[in-house]
Amino acid sequence: MTDLNPPPITLDQFLKQSGIVESGGHAKILIQGGEVLLNGVVEIRRGKKLVPGDVVELFGERLVVGEG
Length: 68
Known about the structure:
single chain, alpha+beta, Structural Genomics Hypothetical 15.5 Kd Protein In mrcA-pckA Intergenic Region, Chain A, 4-stranded antiparallel sheet, 2 helices, 6 strands, globular
């Protein structure tokens, strides 16, 4: 049985779990430095909760939350 309501994931956790950054600390630096786009807008809150369908962009890579 699949979970229809997965627990929310934060932006820094998502970047780490996706493998685009090596650590939570690296994610924090990039997020707070304005390097990460969430749905086309710079997002500087590393604890921002993501929902399925959100689009995260970093280093020219585009990742969709909930796909993969």
